[in-house]
């Protein structure tokens, strides 16, 4: 009789999405101009009105339904855009200006249909030691912004919506999580009435950078 253990069941593949290549509106055999140099793209998000693309040269592009650039402006002069999030016509960006070593948090008003939207707020993200930003999460109401760093620190900005609507300075963040030696690879925002400030272990393994996301309803963690 064989002493070998039974074979493990074969993995099954499921198609959750129907993928279709994005084509240039004027040349169906080519990609849109903004996607032709993909190594230069640093961030892509879907907003309430369109798709936004940022690059390593500090420029943000607002695309049309045909993936053509409608508006573009330099958000970080001499630097690059690393992260973006948008809620209700307000764009939050994190990036690096050429004149500063610290990451810069900027808030833009996309409701203004100017080529370069007005910059509402801007502040440096101060850390005891410089570490790159790995991920950000913005609540649906614009009230909370979480920023995760490569050293395992998570900053939380509260009442961000009040800063925007009341024309006041961005409040100072507070540290809500620290995991020394382990970078923050993903963040999400979910409405919750009561929180005791303690972290709950969901999975012991975790995930790679950029491999986790909260669904658009803020209910499920993918």
TrEMBL record:
SUPFAM superfamilies attached to this UniProt entry: WD40 repeat-like
UniProt keyword terms in alphabetical order: Membrane, Metal-binding, Zinc, Zinc-finger
Any single biological process term in GO: vacuole organization
Domain PEP5/VPS11 N-terminal: 11-192
Gene Ontology CC entries for this record: endosome; HOPS complex
Domain of life: Eukaryota
Pfam families: PEP5_VPS11_N
Alphabetized GO MF terms: protein-macromolecule adaptor activity; zinc ion binding
This protein's record includes keyword Zinc-finger: yes
Chief location of this protein within or outside the cell: membrane
Cell location: Membrane
Name the record gives this protein: PEP5/VPS11 N-terminal domain-containing protein
Species of origin: Mycena citricolor
């Amino acid at each position: 009789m064989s002493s070998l253990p039974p074979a493990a069941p074969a993995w099954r593949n499921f198609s959750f999405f129907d993928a279709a290549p994005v084509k240039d509106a004027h040349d169906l055999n080519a990609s849109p101009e903004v996607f032709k140099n993909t190594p230069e793209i640093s961030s892509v998000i879907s907003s309430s009105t369109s798709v936004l693309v940022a690059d390593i040269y500090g420029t943000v592009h607002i695309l049309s339904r045909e993936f053509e650039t409608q508006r573009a402006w330099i958000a970080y002069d001499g630097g690059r855009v690393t992260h973006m999030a948008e809620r209700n016509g307000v764009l939050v960006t994190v990036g690096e200006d050429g004149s500063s070593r610290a990451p810069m948090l900027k808030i833009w008003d996309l409701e203004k249909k100017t080529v370069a939207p007005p910059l509402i707020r801007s502040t440096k993200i101060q850390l005891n030691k410089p570490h790159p930003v790995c991920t950000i999460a913005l609540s649906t109401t614009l009230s909370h912004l979480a920023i995760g760093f490569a050293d395992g620190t998570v900053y939380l900005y509260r009442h961000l919506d009040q800063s925007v609507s009341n024309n006041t300075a961005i409040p100072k963040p507070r540290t809500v999580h620290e995991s020394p030696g382990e970078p923050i690879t993903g963040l999400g925002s979910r409405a919750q009435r009561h929180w005791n400030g303690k972290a709950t272990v969901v999975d012991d393994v975790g995930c790679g950078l950029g491999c986790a996301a909260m669904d658009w309803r803020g209910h499920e963690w993918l």
